[in-house]
């Protein structure tokens, strides 16, 4: 199910769009101004946003640019019934997916929703609950679909059962260590781009081959931007393959 935020001061148009989208099994939330849209956007995760360019108060483009600050990976399609090329160009330059010119067929929106997907699926395998609690919100805000595993055994089970684009792997996992888990994944043919995290260099010295076979390593504590950069590279590698 896809969560869609519809932002339009034309209430009839917004409600008719919502009806069509909900009939296909998706969930919708309506907002009739930029300010209202941003309130919803700050408190809930939306997979897709339909955003009218002309709104009372702050316009659609200003609303969009604020959304990108809150969640850089936001997937937003602009809507307009007016000739506002300059505003639309500004939105496209800022990363909007495109623009729908009113009136448009509801099927156009439904086709777009079939293409909406998270940036990638990340499994964070780490027994440190505090660490997991700090990185998961960062990854979700960046647009990733995130799952977690507290032990090596749990991580192995999820890696075999689910499609994962990137594994964030703590070398000191309980039950099954990071090195043992990675060896099991190789045996099962379920390796994915893997980012190692560790609290000390001695972990790497225990099995230097592990570092050579994975795509990067971060030493705790690390800058969240370094994590996002490393995961972005790993997911791109997975999806290119």
Question: What layout of secondary structure does this protein have?
Answer:
Blueprint (H helix, E strand, L loop, with lengths): L2 E5 L3 H13 L3 E5 L2 H10 L4 E5 L7 H11 L5 E5 L4 H9 L4 E4 L4 H10 L5 E5 L3 H13 L3 E5 L2 H10 L4 E5 L7 H11 L5 E5 L3 H5 L1 H6 L2 E4 L4 H17 L1
Helix pairs in contact: 2-3, 3-4, 7-8
Number of strands: 10
By CATH reckoning, the class of the largest domain would read Alpha Beta
CATH superfamily label of the largest domain: Response regulator
N to C succession of SSEs: EHEHEHEHEHEHEHEHEHHEH
Main β sheet profile? 5 strands, parallel
- Give Rg in angstroms: 21 Å
Kindly give the count of domains. Answer: 2
Distance between the termini: 26 Å
Identify the strand order in the major beta sheet: 2-1-3-4-5
Number of helical stretches of at least 4 residues:
11
What's the CATH topology label of the largest domain? Rossmann fold
Q: Could you characterize the architecture of this molecule?
A:
With about 240 residues, the protein is an alpha/beta fold. The chain folds into two domains: about 5-115, Response regulator (Rossmann fold, 3-Layer(aba) Sandwich); about 120-240, Response regulator (Rossmann fold, 3-Layer(aba) Sandwich), CATH 3.40.50. About 50% of the residues lie in helices and about 20% in strands. The chain contains eleven helices and ten strands. The strands form two sheets. Strands 2-1-3-4-5 form a five-stranded parallel beta sheet, sandwiched between helices. β8 (about 165-170), α8 and β9 (about 195-200) form a beta-alpha-beta unit. α2 runs parallel beside α3 (about 60-70) and α7 (about 150-160) packs parallel to α8. The protein starts with a strand and ends with a helix.
């Amino acid at each position: 199910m896809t969560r869609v935020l519809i932002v339009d001061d034309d209430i009839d148009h917004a409600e008719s769009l919502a009806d069509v989208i909900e009939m296909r099994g998706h969930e919708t939330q309506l907002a009739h101004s930029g300010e209202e849209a941003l309130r919803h956007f700050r408190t809930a995760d939306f997979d897709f946003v339909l955003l009218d360019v002309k709104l009372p108060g702050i316009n659609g483009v200003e609303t969009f640019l604020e959304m990108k600050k809150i969640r850089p990976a936001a997937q937003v399609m602009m809507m307009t019934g007016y000739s506002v090329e300059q505003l639309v160009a500004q939105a496209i330059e800022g990363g909007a997916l495109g623009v729908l010119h009113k009136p448009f067929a509801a099927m156009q929106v439904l086709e777009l929703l079939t293409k909406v997907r998270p940036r990638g699926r990340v499994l964070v395998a780490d027994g440190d609950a505090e660490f997991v609690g700090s990185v998961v919100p960062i990854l979700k805000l960046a647009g990733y679909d995130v799952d977690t595993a507290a032990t090596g055994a749990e991580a192995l089970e999820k890696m075999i059962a689910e499609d994962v684009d990137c594994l964030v792997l703590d070398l000191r996992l309980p039950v099954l260590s990071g090195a043992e888990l990675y060896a099991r994944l190789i045996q099962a043919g379920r390796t994915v781009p893997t980012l190692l995290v560790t609290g000390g260099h001695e972990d790497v010295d225990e099995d230097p081959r592990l570092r050579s076979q994975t795509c990067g390593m971060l030493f705790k504590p690390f800058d969240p931007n370094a994590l996002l950069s490393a995961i972005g590279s790993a997911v791109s590698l997975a999806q290119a393959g």
